[in-house]
């Protein structure tokens, strides 16, 4: 038998020589398919408003512009494991109840008067609020305000689909019945450190349905005059699951950080992939030599193992960033790694 | 050899017949040496003030009236594993820095203008605040207000001494140096659910040095109109360690609960021992047939496995109780047990 | 009001001045009431045999000689939190089924042909076997061999009683029915590292009902020619709960250790209290200046925070010690502390 | 602006309408790209031997035939997250030392006299042994036996690469130095339930470098006459990490199972993907209507959420299967789901 004959036979037997694939399968270090990229709120908002006029929520189960990373076109994703989109809903509209194993959250950008009903609880929205929809929770939206409501939509479906673990189900009616007091999850756990002693955890995710911006702003203010926090990230707070002290969902960690005027962060990289949304202020993040300038409500992506550095370009105003990443995944699976690293530029 | 000769020989050999001790060692159910008991704030406060005039803090390392359970005189304790005392400190005074393996906390009853310095951090006091001093943390007190400062002092020394694990050390100076921003622990963890991402746990206890009453009151208010909570305990919130979601210290769990006007709790008992302090309101707790009436700042003890029922005797005012227990110990060691049980009366 | 009048009034109010008790409540370091002590197998065995002839198991629920520490006479205990006794049962006898919240185990010294039935499973005994009876498991004994059966009986009742968490119940019949295959717990978990995937934990304790000496000896032999292990304890192996990798029961940790010929251990102390039983060999343990010489089947006590050093006095034979301690309690409650320390002598 | 103009503009802005992708991103249930498939030992072994003659280990870093699932050609994988290959090494050969973040193991099929050196410890191989190489552990191979050595090579690189977390490094010399006693990890933890008390965990994976077949066979024999175990999987044992009781590595769980003669398993499916290798016996596994017949050393793949049923087609002989899966990943991330399900056929 010649090598060629053997190679041919192996192909038919469903086998292949490792030595011909080796370098591709075992790279010296990760090189994400995602690229550093930003999405402009000013540019995208008009299109959202356009489709809110031309496309009904009966046609589109959800009216969302996906923020597609140029390196992750098909299937579409924002970073390797996570997705970001901009969703709009109009006064008087409702969005169909459904559930999926993907974990999701909303981070509110504009508008008031809407709520998401999550497993029977109405959860209201205001700018800066973080609303959780953990995996397999029924959720539908209703808007009774008087102006469009826009939020950042976040999901881990790229991860869940890569792991081939996605399930999806529509609720038999358009809206689920309300069975709990409004915003109960948020109010019962107003402070994660004062937890209702008559409850017990009912899953791996946080029971706080809504982390209001009011509370988040108070937490940021409370540490305003203490040490600078991290030299990489400034004052950076992790939203936590009050039952465990860990991340809000097993696959997604959420943070908010304040960069003081003139902040020039240290460079770093880690294996987690991160998506940022600008709460307020102006600045730039340098990622692997690419400078991403940002201002209010812009979204930008820092791929895993890309080096990054945050800059607050204002000499007088704080900048505040909201972000989410797959760091909990990397830690659970023993794959988290981080080191100081200069992004250049 | 006769039995008697054998019994005598055994005594000399350091052995004893189990069959002569059996019933005492294996009781059918626990019967605490502690008894249901209450301590009157109105009665005790004058004595505190008296000794604040006649006894200096150089003579007494701490000026504290121990609340001694009639069943636990020697060594003195309030319930089986825990201690409560009333401590007073005058304007201009300082109390010597020391540390001990016993876990401790202060629950403030009266006064402002004082602080405890805990491992280099000044922690300020106001009525209703809960200040932690976890085991082996240096702590000293300073009072610069203009009226006496009184708090409930809590320690687990009865447990630690029963386990023969107590260590104690005096600081070489009267006061330790301040090395951290004032109230940093409290402000960094204002919300347990938003935790500083640049910190990591440095021990088994909560890093929240001060749980202010302001925050506690907000948490209670936030659940005011939702379900009644527990039929035994009303709206009951557990103070938690933000790193773990568990109790604030490994041996002591702290709670605050609101009993709505006219609340008549269900009867229950559990193996944990509990000490209560009345934040506001008037009512009674029936314990194993003994009725303990209480009003503001009174302290009362519910021994382990004693049946109890809480009553708010006001038809118009809430009652609010602060409490602490050894439930974390019982749970860690697999000894926690609870059941519905009528205290009678 | 004078001080004296105030002291008197306080007594009636159930309060006491901390400043008069301070030093006793906060010792500089632990000083166990237990003393270093040993119990001779050669001396005690005849008395066991004596009472096996003069006392029936109908009179004594269990026929056990308690090994009472001279410092812990009432209530009787062997070290602060733990108890050891020597139990004997004769061919043809049975011992009444009961259960208690105290965790217990048997370490077999002499005889074959008996079994303990634990929650419906017959667990057989042979010298060197460790048989667990975790808290609240029904257990009764039956002996069908042809010579007396003697074992070391271990319980945590001093701890459970100090925590006022002891419950006890007699089974309505003398013996419980057998509902599981013989020694199933032991055989299903023959290797803790190969666990039955169709089972799940049903409590905080190990499901291994019997750790046979045969398996223990194999484990000791397997590390015979590798490094010496600990300079304090030689080759020391911890019996573990295969579901957690932790101690076999939440309150008691069990170990076996081999001291090579001529072993002269480093001195150490820790807050855990320990009871040893000699499996084979001859040697001595120096505890706080007291030399305890030991040989086969002797039992000896090392109180918490006492300094100790192990010696194998044979130049040619290994010594093997079995031991158990409350280290899991100290660790769970954040009270474990250890340091190098010379016991003198 | 028309819809078309808006769609075109969005494309340039890196955004896309979710409503055009919806169904693909949120499937009703997982449908693995992998297909049920088996690989024949009898067919593949001659090709392994062929390349052992024509390809040196200087040319191929490792001489391995990858078992490529027909649904997962590029990049090649055996099931969605895991890889299996057949590796051969000849007497006198060595394989270059390297390390990678992918977790790996070897399951030995044929030969003796070789060892893998893992972080300084020589780990020897014999048929049926499971040898771990947790992520980022240096490893190289040496064969000094007198016949070819063949093993099943397992890696989680499909998962690690999908998560973009792969690192790889070559050791500067061909072989690393030996710094620990031979097979120390295996011998120190011969029983997971008797663990060396002088060691502490140094990572998330099992310290047992080698789970010998001798020990595995003893564990299987020990439960031979007890209950049948699972109606789906027969007597099925999980290899565990003795420090935690959990899976051997954070991304891969390993099991061995015995199907008694004539075993006809119940049907089931779960979100984990599994690869099987036949230790001995003959039978078939029906997967989503496809019957995979198997005999000794064959490998077969059961994709996630595929229904399966195991059959032992012999009326007199046991069948024994070794398997590994990504169940630990699914459980850590909250994505594990299972249900009874008939595979048909």
Automatic annotation (TrEMBL), chains A, B, C, D:
Q: Which InterPro entries match?
A: Cupin_2, GDO-like, RmlC-like_jellyroll, RmlC_Cupin_sf
Arranged from A to Z, the UniProt key words for this protein are:
Dioxygenase, Oxidoreductase
One Gene Ontology molecular-function label: oxidoreductase activity, acting on single donors with incorporation of molecular oxygen, incorporation of two atoms of oxygen
Identify the residues that the record assigns to the Cupin type-2 domain, covering every copy. 86-153
CDD domains in the cross-refs: cupin_GDO-like_C (cd06992), cupin_GDO-like_N (cd02216)
UniProt cross-references to Pfam families, sorted A to Z = Cupin_2 (PF07883)
Tell me what this protein is called.
Gentisate 1,2-dioxygenase
Q: Which organism is it from?
A: Streptomyces atratus
**Organism lineage:** Bacteria, Bacillati, Actinomycetota, Actinomycetes, Kitasatosporales
